[in-house]
Amino acid sequence: SQTIHQWPATLVQPVGSPLSLECTVEGTSNPNLYWYRQAAGRGLQLLFYSVGIGQISSEVPQNLSASRPQDRQFILSSKKLLLSDSGFYLCAWSESYLRFFGPGTRLTVL
Amino acid sequence: DAKTTQPPSMDCAEGRAANLPCNHSTISGNEYVYWYRQIHSQGPQYIIHGLKNNETNEMASLIITEDRKSSTLILPHATLRDTAVYYCIVSSDNYGQNFVFGPGTRLSVLP
């Protein structure tokens, strides 16, 4: 069966520091991959999606970037974090019409 | 923007059926209705989806009106563990921006 991993589970970073969040999927090949962000008390906002290695689409302009160096690996990065980057970051993969989410990373920028 | 409208919150007594409504009056013919839920501090969990016909699985039932402009998610015997935010989504797009999560309905199951 398919499994999606995210790490770290929680992260506290100072403003201006870099960021790297990693997501890996097991048990499937060539999945569509997604990064979402959920601010406190808000809905999920789609940040990036990828339909293949090296193929990244950005949904909103922002301080973040994404990369897909391997088929089942999706990385979310930032060179300099802002206070507004705090939130709950979720990775997801899709097969057919369904999306499946990872456990998330809670990022606090101080 | 989300193409669905849901009540912001609902309460349900433990053991009773929870009926969560969703309006999607602008749904297109090729768009499915999906339901997910998010328990606090976890990733959203898929529940059920449908196109035209009513659907049932081990978690819930989905009732879609004949004109497809609204639907209801039914949890037949709600438990305390069903307390969560429930999201109704309409989409035909497997890739990007059309799979939009709105604010959802916060369901509280009360003992």
Detailed description of the structure:
- The complex is a heterodimer of chains A (110) and B (111).
- Chain A is mainly β.
- Chain A has no helices and eleven strands.
- In chain A, the strands form two sheets. In chain A, strands 2, 4, 5, 6, 9, 10 and 11 form a seven-stranded mixed beta sheet that branches.
- In chain A, strand 9 and strand 10 (98-101) form a beta hairpin.
- By secondary structure, chain B is mostly beta strands.
- Helices cover 0% and strands 45% of the residues of chain B.
- Chain B has no helices and nine strands.
- A five-stranded mixed beta sheet of chain B has the order 1-9-8-3-4, with no helix packed on it. A four-stranded antiparallel beta sheet of chain B has the order 2-7-6-5, with no helix packed on it.
- In chain B, strand 3 and strand 4 form a beta hairpin.
- The mean pLDDT of chain B is 92.
- Chain A binds chain B through residues 32, 36, 42-44, 46, 49, 51, 57, 59, 88, 90, 92, 94, 96-104, 106, and chain B through 2, 32, 34, 41-46, 49, 87, 91, 94-97, 99-104.
Task: Give a summary of the structure in a few sentences.
The complex is a heterodimer of chains A (110) and B (111). With 110 residues, chain A is an all-beta fold. Chain A contains no helices and 11 strands.
Compile the SSE list and pairings.
The complex is a heterodimer of chains A (110) and B (111).
Chain A: E1 3-7, E2 10-13, E3 19-26, E4 32-38, E5 44-52, E6 55-58, E7 65-70, E8 73-78, E9 87-95, E10 98-101, E11 105-109
Parallel strand pairs in A: 2-11
Antiparallel strand pairs in A: 1-3, 3-8, 4-5, 4-9, 5-6, 7-8, 9-10, 9-11
Chain B: E1 9-13, E2 18-23, E3 32-38, E4 45-50, E5 55-56, E6 61-64, E7 70-75, E8 84-91, E9 105-110
